[in-house]
Design goal:
The complex is a heterodimer of chains A (about 325) and B (about 260). By secondary structure, chain A is mostly helical. Helices cover about 75% and strands about 0% of the residues of chain A. Chain A has 15 helices and two strands. In chain A, helix 2 packs across helix 11. With about 260 residues, chain B is an alpha/beta fold. In chain B, strand 4 and strand 5 form a beta hairpin. In chain B, helix 3 packs across helix 4. Classes of the chains: A mainly alpha (about 325), B alpha/beta (about 260).
Chain lengths: ~325, ~260
């Protein structure tokens, strides 16, 4: 048992170091196209990992998670283009806006669970979309809003350069990523798993499960909104497409395909999704069809998500090796 | 491992007349069905009260009303003199009420020790610690280890509960309630589905519990019920049929009729 604890403690920081080293070291040798893809991946990974806290860990599937991202993209663009706001102001505004919006939406949504929760969040997402589409004086409707420029930090590196913007996003990505990692491991994070597994038991134990669900609904929305700021600065253009429920569905797919309830799963899901979407759409207009086929295949062969599929495969190989060495024992792990 | 005394309930008014639980005219209807019908009950502090009755007598519904999983149609429930009739389930846990479930109700994707730690944490402020890993709360783990020792399961602490045998799961089910240091413990058929040997282990563990804890037990197995309790309430069709000590219940003609079908 002691050995396994030591291994657990060593493994995670090592994984983080390798992951971030690659993210820092590799991009300079990549093409601009690939660097921009990586930037997109970072932004979508924030959205997917935060959605996973709701979907994978708490067991609440929402159809409106990307709404906060879109809302933030609008808020950033409007603040900067019309009111001459700065990047820090936009960031703070978006965090507050996402939290307040989620606090209102959560009051409606967190009363329900399962399919009802899904439907309520979808309806709210459609409300946001309707607003973006129809409130033309504010949002520009279908035409959207142009005129956003990348923030000027007063540093010698202009963020108009894809590579520098990538590093800019990477710093903020790292903050969110580590915060979310800590949250999932925290006491509060464990209570979410408890709610997913058995809400009735949690309530009997003395947990106000509604409050926990409400809090995580707001927290994840804030992360989604946080990603939206960088999404706006990445695209430099915002329109009602950005608050379309399609984005929320794509986020759901990233999590579901990657491996809900695992920390790495959504990272893989978001990365693969962005990569495939962009690569396939280079070759054909019908990229959605091809993506559809790929996801059907994932559901067919790895319904528990790509990460869990790989992990199971690896454990199968490792397990067989262990068996050869020391004979079988299902309780082997706990006695180490 | 020092036994950590956890006295975490909101200050309650002095216990009136030494009663832990008082139930007055409790009714619960589901549509046209009256599952619990005008039940009155008074349980003294430290008492071991058995609730028996044939299938469908309303025993589990009665438990759900006391624990707050369901709200009663009419009637009143008092816990240590506090009116808890309409307060939510999780608040009742703060008053020292703890329960187990008839159908095993655990966190299947967590390990044994994590299940217990989550239960131990329920009444602590640490449940809202957003960034501090749960493993840093050593005190909770100490309490979990203590419970594992009591239920005799220190071997399987890192096993996922879904991989445990039914008997082991039932032990954890009871352990989850005990770790909260309850003042009133509701056990809903703790020995359901257990082999006689497993059942005997559980019974001896429950017998050793501190007499300051009041226990209400629903039990189908008469041997178990008679071993663990000193006073019994019999329910039938949601109504209270009889109440009394073991001898009087065994001798009661109405109870014999319900259970054995004798005229």
């Amino acid at each position: 048992m002691k050995l396994s604890i030591v291994l657990e403690k060593r493994k995670t920081p090592l994984g983080f170091v390798v992951f971030f080293t690659l993210l820092v070291a590799v991009p300079p040798v990549l093409s601009t196209f690939m660097v921009e893809l990586l930037t997109q991946m970072l932004i979508w990974t924030i959205v997917a990992v935060s959605l996973n806290m709701l979907l994978g860990y708490t067991g609440l599937s929402t159809m409106g998670h990307a709404s906060y991202m879109g809302l933030s993209a609008y808020a950033t663009t409007i603040l900067v283009t019309r009111f001459h706001g700065t990047f820090p102001q936009a960031l703070i505004l978006c965090l507050v806006l996402s939290a307040v919006t989620a606090a209102v939406f959560g009051l409606l949504a967190c009363r329900a669970k399962g399919p009802e929760f899904l439907l309520i969040t979808m309806t709210l997402a459609l409300v946001v979309w309707g607003l973006a589409n129809r409130w033309v004086s504010m949002t520009g409707g279908d035409n959207g809003i142009v005129g956003l420029t990348r923030p000027d930090l007063g540093l010698p590196w202009s963020l108009d350069n894809s590579l520098y913007y990538y590093y800019f996003v990477l710093i903020f990505f790292a903050i969110a990523f580590i915060l979310m990692f800590l949250m999932i491991r925290s006491s509060f994070g464990k209570t979410l798993v408890g709610i997913r597994d058995s809400e009735s038991r949690m309530r009997a134990l003395g947990y106000n499960t509604w409050l926990h669900k409400y809090l995580i609904f707001i927290i994840t929305a804030v992360f989604s909104g946080y990603a939206g700021v960088f999404w706006a600065y990445y695209n430099l253009y915002v329109s009602s497409v950005d608050v379309d429920t399609v984005h929320s569905i794509e986020a759901l797919l990233m999590v579901a395909a990657g491996g809900p309830g695992t920390f790495i799963g959504p990272v893989i899901g978001a990365g693969l999704f962005v990569l495939l979407k962009n690569l396939v759409s280079v070759y054909t207009q019908r990229w959605r069809m091809i993506m559809g086929v790929i996801f059907v295949l994932v559901v067919f062969f790895a319904p528990e998500g790509i990460f869990n599929f790989l992990k199971r495969g690896w454990e199968g190989i490792a397990g067989r090796r262990l068996q050869k060495k020391a004979g079988d024992g299902s309780r082997e792990k706990s006695k180490v | 491992m020092a036994a950590v005394k956890n006295q975490k309930f909101e200050p309650s008014r002095p216990v009136e007349d030494g009663f832990c639980l008082v139930v007055e005219d409790l009714c619960k209807t589901f549509g046209g069905l009256t599952a619990v019908n005008q039940v009155n009950l008074k349980v003294k502090v430290g008492e071991r009260r058995g609730i028996i009755g044939p299938n469908g007598a309303g025993k589990t519904t009665f438990f759900n009303l006391i624990s707050g999983a369901l709200l009663p149609t009419s009637g009143k429930i008092f816990l240590f003199g506090n009116d808890i009739t309409n307060i939510t389930a999780y608040r009742r846990a703060y008053l020292g009420l703890s329960r187990t479930f008839q159908i095993t109700n655990l966190f299947n994707s967590l390990t044994v020790i994590e299940n217990l730690v989550l239960a131990a944490q329920a009444l602590e402020k640490s449940k809202f610690a957003v960034f501090r890993p749960i493993t840093k709360f050593g005190r909770l783990y100490d309490r979990a280890e203590e419970i594992l020792e009591r239920v005799g399961m220190t071997e399987g602490r890192n096993e996922y509960v879904k991989n445990l045998s039914h008997g082991e799961q039932r032990q954890i089910e009871v352990g989850m309630a005990l770790i909260q240091n309850p003042r009133l413990l509701l056990l809903d058929e703790p020995t359901a589905g257990l082999a006689p040997a497993e059942s005997a282990i559980l019974v001896s563990m429950l017998k050793k519990l501190d007499r300051t804890i009041t226990i209400l037990i629903i039990e189908h197995d008469m041997d178990v019920a008679f071993q663990l309790t000193d006073y019994i309430t019999v329910l039938n069709f949601g109504k209270m049929l009889a109440e009394g000590n073991l001898e009087s219940i065994k001798a009661n003609a109405k109870v014999q009729e319900v259970y054995l079908g004798m005229p």
